[in-house]
From TrEMBL:
Record-level Gene Ontology MF annotations: oxidoreductase activity, acting on a sulfur group of donors, disulfide as acceptor
Biased amino acid composition, Polar residues: 152-167
UniProt keyword Membrane present: yes
All residue ranges annotated as the Thioredoxin domain in the record: 23-142
Record-linked PROSITE patterns: THIOREDOXIN_2
Transmembrane feature ranges: 7-25
Pfam families according to UniProt: Thioredoxin
Organism: Candidatus Synechococcus spongiarum SP3
This protein's record includes keyword Membrane: yes
Lineage: Bacteria, Bacillati, Cyanobacteriota, Cyanophyceae, Synechococcales
Annotated keywords: Membrane, Transmembrane, Transmembrane helix
Name of the protein described by the UniProt record: Thioredoxin domain-containing protein
SUPFAM superfamilies in the record: Thioredoxin-like (SSF52833)
Length: 179
């Protein structure tokens, strides 16, 4: 290997290292974003009883679609501060088992829309584009019928990486009905 090839190899290795750090950093920020939104959420019972419309998202840290929607959720929280409660619940947290059963969460992300009286106005499963979520929230705030509820958006994919140990994708992974 001549000097030119060594320089090229070192440059490529450097670029690969920078890209790896960037991917890791971006992923950690995204997880922190979901967790930060969840920590800033009102308790669910308080949000559903305080007279404000409420958007509840059931998410998972491993859910790529949830991470894609996180900036939109943060924007909705900021844009509609004081008029809308946003509650994020991590499906991996055993504290929410009762809510997962009660609200029949079978896929992530699942977003539930509640009116000011605490009644469910709609349910959305899967990826929603920012403009769709904004239109749904605007309709909720006006007490109008919610658009886009008759379609399921894209969800994250889950593969069973170790079938020899008998692990099975759970029913709350992505609404696929596996048990």
């Amino acid at each position: 290997m001549d000097n030119k090839d060594r320089v090229l190899a070192m440059a490529l290795a450097g670029i690969a290292a920078v890209l790896a750090v960037a991917v890791f950093w971006t992923r950690s920020l995204s997880t922190q974003g979901l967790e930060a939104l969840a920590r800033a959420s009102l308790p669910l019972d308080e949000a559903l009883s305080n007279g404000k419309p409420t958007l509840v998202e059931f998410y998972a840290d491993w859910c790529e679609v949830c991470h894609q929607m996180e900036p939109t959720m943060a924007q909705l929280k900021q844009t509609h501060r004081g008029a809308l409660d946003l509650v994020l619940l991590n499906v991996e947290n055993p504290l929410w088992e009762q809510e997962l059963d009660q609200f029949q969460v079978r896929g992530v992300p699942t977003v539930l829309f509640y009116g000011p009286d605490g009644t469910v106005r709609g349910r959305s499963i899967g990826l929603r584009q920012p403009e769709q979520l904004e239109a749904m929230v605007a309709a909720l705030l006006r007490d109008d019928p919610l658009p886009f509820l008759n379609r399921q958006g894209a969800t994250s994919t889950v593969t069973d990486t170790n079938p020899s140990q008998g692990s099975v994708v759970g029913p709350r992974s992505h609404g696929d009905g596996a048990a």
